């Protein structure tokens, strides 16, 4: 049985003789967050904030005191912080969420360690080697923790590694190929985040995680198609257009199914950007820019109006 929603209570209230006290009790029990839930949220929020500021403090500490520290002190301090953090995660009995937050901070410190090592010994490696080593070093932690924030860091590192590789090694790859591959890679992550629970019951990523992945997918699609319109036709561009159209259609249906306007909104604005790029391709004179301005105002207004109507329909 699905959990009762706020709208369900209001519908029942309009068509029944429920007392005000009964409705208030049900709202507090099923809808509103309790005092304990707020305390849990604030505790995790402030711990995350503290870990983030601590990690940032470590970064600025090494940046500011770079010339005044011996190389063994630089490396030793970071290694000590990583070992201490992992020891707390492994041997303490604190809350699992707190352990995952600490593990995310340790994963960032691994990157700091690699950066310090590379600066001290001047290995001459490419920038993508640094991010590749960082990514591989925390892969086990990511898989074991199954923590959304750490997965997000991991996916960002994968994307960064790939982009730097195309800039430093794969010089003959066109922008259409690069953006098509980035679109495909992040689409795979998005599909796993949305439907992976069907195959792995323990997988239950939060909504904000899948929303960020969806924004990345739509961004790469929009940039790739908009840029490809102004360049010579390539096979990769055709693949990107077809894959984007398919994914946008599925995203539209999925958005209607779960009654969420987020996917419809980002898909609609992506299509508006692509059409605008195509219009600029046709002509770049003053008349066309006036038409594009009118088109943008009208299309965005239509999208917002449609989203508002859908939201009203879903909340009835």
Task: Give structural notes.
The protein is an all-alpha fold and 316 residues long. It has two domains: 48-172, no CATH class; 173-316. 81% of the residues lie in helices and 0% in strands. It has helices at residues 6-14, 20-31, 35-64, 71-91, 96-121, 127-137, 139-145, 148-168, 175-195, 207-229, 235-258, 262-282, 286-315. It starts with 5 loop residues before the first helix and ends with a helix. The mean pLDDT is 81.
Ordered list of secondary-structure elements with their pairings:
Blueprint: H1 6-14, H2 20-31, H3 35-64, H4 71-91, H5 96-121, H6 127-137, H7 139-145, H8 148-168, H9 175-195, H10 207-229, H11 235-258, H12 262-282, H13 286-315
Structural features:
316 residues, mainly alpha, 13 helices, globular
Poorly predicted spans? none
Number of domains: 2
Task: State the order of secondary-structure elements, H for helix, E for strand.
Answer: HHHHHHHHHHHHH
Arithmetic mean pLDDT: 81
Oligomeric state of the chains present here: single chain
* Rg from Cα: 25 Å
Q: What is the count of β-strands?
A: 0
Overall structural class, as computed from helix and strand content, comes to mainly alpha
Q: Please, how many helices? A: 13
Helix percentage range: over 70%
Distance between the termini: 20 Å
Task: Give the overall form.
Answer: globular
User: How big a fraction of the residues is strand?
Assistant: under 5%
Largest sheet: none
């Amino acid at each position: 049985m699905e959990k009762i929603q706020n709208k369900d209570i209001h519908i029942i209230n309009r068509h029944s003789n429920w007392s005000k006290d009964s409705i208030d009790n049900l709202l507090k029990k099923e809808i509103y967050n309790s005092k304990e839930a707020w305390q849990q949220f604030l505790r995790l929020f402030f711990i995350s904030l503290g870990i983030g500021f601590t990690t940032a403090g470590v970064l600025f500490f090494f940046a500011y005191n770079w010339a005044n520290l011996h190389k063994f002190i630089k490396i030793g301090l970071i290694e000590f912080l990583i070992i201490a953090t992992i020891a707390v995660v492994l041997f303490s009995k604190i809350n699992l969420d707190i352990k995952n937050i600490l593990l995310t901070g340790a994963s960032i410190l691994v990157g700091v360690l690699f950066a310090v090592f590379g600066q001290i010994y001047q290995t001459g490696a490419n920038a993508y080697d640094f991010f590749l080593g960082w990514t591989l070093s925390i892969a086990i932690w990511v898989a074991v923790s199954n923590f959304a924030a750490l997965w997000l860091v991991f996916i960002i590192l994968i994307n960064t590694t790939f982009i730097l590789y195309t800039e430093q090694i794969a010089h003959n790859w066109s922008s259409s190929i690069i953006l098509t591959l980035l679109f495909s890679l992040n689409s795979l992550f998005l599909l796993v985040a949305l439907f992976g629970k069907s195959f792995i019951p323990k997988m239950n990523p939060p909504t904000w995680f899948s929303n960020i992945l969806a924004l990345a997918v739509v961004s790469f699609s929009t940039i790739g198609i908009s840029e490809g319109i102004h360049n010579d036709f390539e096979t990769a561009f055709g693949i990107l257009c077809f894959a984007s159209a398919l994914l946008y259609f599925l995203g539209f249906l999925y958005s209607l199914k779960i009654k969420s306007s987020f996917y419809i909104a980002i898909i609609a604005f992506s299509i508006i950007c692509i059409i605008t790029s195509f219009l600029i391709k046709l002509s770049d004179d003053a008349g066309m820019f006036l038409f594009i301005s009118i088109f943008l105002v009208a299309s965005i207004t239509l999208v917002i109006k449609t989203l508002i109507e859908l939201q009203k329909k879903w909340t009835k």
